[in-house]
Each structure stands twice: as C-alpha cells, then as structure tokens.
C-alpha cells in the first residue's frame, strides 16, 4: 500500500517498480521465509534508487509512504517505510502490530523486513496509510472490519467501510486502506471472540516455528494501550516441540481488497 508525499510521482514509481524489483530478487522464489525477507529489503532499496533517478531527471523531490505485506506458506513477511502501518486480528481477540512507523521510502537508510508465523486463528490484516491511522484507532478499526466481515462476508465492503469511517472522522487527505483475509471461516463467524474494546490484554503472541526446529526467531510483541495505541516490545523465543500441522494450504489463495477514497479539499 502506497501513499504519496508532495505529489503522486514517487507513489507511482513504487507501484510500478517495487513488485518487479522484488520478483527479480534472487531469494523471491526461495522456500525459506528469511530469504524472502532479505529480498524484500533489497527490492525496497532498489525502488528507492528508482525514485532518486526521477528526482535527478525532474528536480522535484516527491516522497512515498510504503507498507508491504507478503503472505506465503504459513508466514507473513512485512516491511514498512513511512507513517503507514499493518495490524493483524486473531479469532481469540488478540490484536498485533506487524509494522511500526519509520522514515519514508525515499528517506529511509536501511529498510527492515519482519517475519511472523501464521496461526489458524489469524483472521485478517488491516493495512492503512498515515492519514487513515491518524483518525482511526486500532481497536475501532479492527472491530469495524470484523463486524462488516461477519455481517456482509465481503472484504471489498469492509475495506470501503473503513475508508469512509476515516473520512467521517475528519481525514482531509486521500485515505487508503487494505484488508487481507487470512481465514474466512474465522473472520466470517460471529461465534469467534471480538477484539477487546478497552485494549487490555491485547497483544500479538509469538508462535512456534512451523518446522518444529529449535531455530531462534524474533517476534515483535505489541501491547494495545488504553488509548488504543500499539506499544511495540521485543520478544525472543525458541521454536521447539512437535512439528505444527499443515493448516495453511487452504489459505494460500487469500483474499485482498484495497479501498481508496479522496478526502475533502481545504
């Protein structure tokens, strides 16, 4: 998801170049999620170079906020450059932050990609631009998306509802928001637990390695404060125990929908 700064030029470049730069990376087709994460970091740097070339040609320094989430083989690989963010919602009510704000793609010195293991209770991911998160609290966004998915069973409608809510809450610029549906059986079910309204005891818990190995992994744990803000923490865990069952095959064809709405001009 991209959001332009001082014009659409850098945003257009990221939209056209980042995907192709990623696919051209050596580790893109690897079955190791860590190789995919490294490829994403390199692709973002190459895209930054493409933006700089445009700066040289035009003399205009347009910027772009960029949030990238990849879902593959039971893992989430994500990276953020700018004020956008991505959060994940689980069926048991936990809400976790997958990314955190940083410098824009045209300014960041070294992009960083994170890897998370998926669980069968992971329902959906909400990705929003800076303007969206400026006016929408995390708990409200997740609750609204969950309610829309349960009632209408339509990812497109849920995404549009979130964008409309941001505009109604005071957003003055273009608003972009995306929902990635991970598990429709959970997300469309009213019997699953709703995210906590008050934000207490809401965090993204570390998950064991799918391989059942003892490899070390870093998970970013996020606590939702009373104000609805996500407070990142670090947690180092060792994946051990029996090999997890292959419950992700049915979710490889996950559903994504993007909604973008133009705010009123001042």
Oligomer: single chain
Backbone CA Rg: 18 Å
How do the helices and strands follow one another from N- to C-terminus? EHHEEEEEEHHHEHEEE
Strand content: 25-35%
Largest sheet: 5 strands, antiparallel
Sheet with the most strands: spatial strand order: 5-4-7-8-11
The helix content, as a percent range, equals 25-40%
What is the average of the pLDDT values?
76
Terminal CA distance: 25 Å
Shape: globular
The number of distinct β-strands equals 11
Structural class: alpha+beta
Sequence stretches where pLDDT stays below 50 over 5 or more residues:
192-254
* SS summary, helix count: 6
Give your account of this protein's structure.
The protein is an alpha+beta fold. Helices cover 30% and strands 28% of the residues. The protein contains 6 helices and 11 strands. The strands form 3 sheets. The chain has a 5-stranded antiparallel β-sheet with strand order 5-4-7-8-11. A 4-stranded antiparallel β-sheet has the order 1-2-3-6. Strands 9-10 form a two-stranded antiparallel ribbon. The longest helix is centred in the N-terminal third of the chain and has 26 residues. It is globular and about 55 Å long.
């Amino acid at each position: 998801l991209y959001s332009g700064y001082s014009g659409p030029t850098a945003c257009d470049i990221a939209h056209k170049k980042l995907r192709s730069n990623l696919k051209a990376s050596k580790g893109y087709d690897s079955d190791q999620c860590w190789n995919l994460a490294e490829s994403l970091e390199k692709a973002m740097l190459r895209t930054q170079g493409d933006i700089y070339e445009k700066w040289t040609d035009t003399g205009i320094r347009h910027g772009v906020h960029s949030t990238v989430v990849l879902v593959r083989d039971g893992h989430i690989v994500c990276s953020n450059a700018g004020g956008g963010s991505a959060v994940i919602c689980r069926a048991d009510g936990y809400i976790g932050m997958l990314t955190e704000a940083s410098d824009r793609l045209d300014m960041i010195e070294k992009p960083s990609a994170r890897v998370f293991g998926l669980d069968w209770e992971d329902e959906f991911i909400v990705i929003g631009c800076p303007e969206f998160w400026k006016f929408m609290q995390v708990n409200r966004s997740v609750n609204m998306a969950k309610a829309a998915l349960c009632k209408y069973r339509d990812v497109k409608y849920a995404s549009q509802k979130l964008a409309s809510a941001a505009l109604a809450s005071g957003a003055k610029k273009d608003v972009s928001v995306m929902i990635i549906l991970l598990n429709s059986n959970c997300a469309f079910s009213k019997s699953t637990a709703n995210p906590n309204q008050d934000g207490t005891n809401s965090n993204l818990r570390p998950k064991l390695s799918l391989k059942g190995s003892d490899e070390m992994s870093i998970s970013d744990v996020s606590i939702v404060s009373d104000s609805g803000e996500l407070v990142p923490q670090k947690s180092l865990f060792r994946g051990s125990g029996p090999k997890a069952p292959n419950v992700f095959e049915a979710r490889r064809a996950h559903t994504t929908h993007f909604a973008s709405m133009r705010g009123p001009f001042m």
